[in-house]
Amino acid sequence: MKQIDTIRGYHTHVYFDAQSVEKARTLCETTATLFGVKMGRVHEQAVGPHPMWSCQLGATPSQFSQLLPWLALNRDGLIVFAHPETGNHLEDHRDHGIWLGTGLDLDLSIFS
Predict the structure, then answer these.
(1) Which of 90, 62, 61, 67 is nearest to 13 (CA)?
(2) Using an 8 Å Cβ cutoff, are 15 and 81 in contact?
């Protein structure tokens, strides 16, 4: 059985499209300010395994414990995907992900 101390952090990906890009940017900037998480670039194209435009938020385990409930209530209809960072990217995305909103198919072939 895996231990939770193997979780070094979390990545949270906020998904959006051309109509919701400003809503997503505001949500990510607000989240970074409120929780002190690291905000990545706002990608206006699909990047990595992600099927939509996205912005990544990097959180420590303690930040994530506050971040996820807040996003559940304040995501304003945006889809959010979160996963732990254990060092096994395939398992982190495929087996340990958490969806807020509609789950989407990730392109896991990049981890092969």
Answers:
(1) 67
(2) yes
CATH number for the segment(s) 8-102: 3.30.70.1240
102: left (phi over 0), alpha (psi -120 to 50) or beta: beta
CB-based contacts of 22, cutoff 8 Å, min separation 6: none
> What is the domain partition of the chain in residue ranges?
8-102
Q: Is-above-0.85 flag for pTM?
A: yes
Structure tokens at 70: 């807040």
78, 26 Cβ separation under 8 angstroms:
no
H/E run at residue 80: strand 79-85
Tell me: pLDDT of 37 over 90. Answer: yes
